[in-house]
Amino acid sequence: MGQQMYLGADAQGGYFTNPRLSKKLRHALEPLCKFRQFVDTKEAFGKHAGQTVIFNKISNISTAGGTLVETNTMPEHQYSAARGTISLSEWGNAVPFTYKLDALSEWPVDDPTQHVLRNDMVQVLDKACGLQYKLTCRKYVCLTTATGTMESRAEGNTFATSNIAKVGPAVYHLEECVDWLRGHNIPPYNGEDYVGIFSVNALRTIARDGAFTEAAKYGDPNRLFAGEVGRIAGVRCVRETNYLANTLGSSSGTNALGEGIIFGANSVIEGIALPEELRQKIPTDYGRSKGLAWYALLGWKKQYKSADSGQDDHAIHITSTK
To answer: How is the chain split into domains, by residue range?
Structure first.
């Protein structure tokens, strides 16, 4: 039996990626991602580091400070630290092709293949990240243009329990969500504004609100985030077309209401063992079978929940029972 081809020799196959290419791909993906651009990262590079990434969550101090009595000692209190975990998973997809196709094609096969794989990578990873935002226990349902209700759900639920949305979100509903976040001391994403990611139909009803239209006349024309279309009521509004549903609520067709997420800082954390990269298949069948793939070792987790000491969920899901 002859010697096998092996990974370590460039001339005989292996990965065509390197750290520079990995970074290039990651940066190229970020403008296309709507959810991942807002995550915090916890890097755990390298093999043999385990499948779980641990991150710490710090509570507020146990007892608030106050005035002092000159002859008394300074009061001393504690804060607590809790741990959260991110489970890392393998992610990937591949496109095989033959050497004959690559050799005789008028156009390089690698170029469209990389484009297709990059699009697939964006959709898959951003959707997995977005799920963690939807797992918030706080669900807001728009009932009328001037009323809504906040529901509390158990961990792991992605819809409201009993209320069906009758209208799409408007500026009034954004204000209610922001008031709830501020009232629970959830910090804004960038120190000033919260972020709202909405499906096409959900953002359409916001944009039709007269208050949004008026605010747009005087708003900052510069867009800080990918997909951002405007700012109102302390919320930077981002349009998302990959994951959030357009068909929730009691209306249908062109009047479907859709869903959205409004969140502050420290909402979701990303664990990284290996950032996404393109890989070339080790040629088989004497070089006649080739291919390209994308691959990553990643995971996501919402950082805080209502049960955490001195904390609450850092995101509100605008949704419905159906």
So the answer is: 144-267
Q: What is the mean pLDDT of residues 199-226?
A: 72
Give the strand pairing for 40-43 and 268-280: parallel
What's the average model confidence in pLDDT over 285-307?
90
3-class state of residue 197 by DSSP = strand
Sheet arrangement for strand 89-98: 40-43, 268-280, 289-302, 89-98
The structure tokens listed for 120 are 């697939």
Q: Which helix (H) or strand (E) holds 81?
A: strand 81-87
Amino acid at 315: A
Higher-pLDDT residue of 26 and 163 is 163
What φ, ψ does residue 20 adopt, rounded to 5°?
A: -65, -45
Give 42's contacts (C-beta < 8 A, 6+ positions apart).
53, 55, 86, 269, 270, 271, 272
Q: How high is the pLDDT of residue 235?
A: 93
Average pLDDT of the chain is: 83
What does the alpha-carbon distance between residue 23 and residue 19 come to, in Å, rounded to a whole number?
6
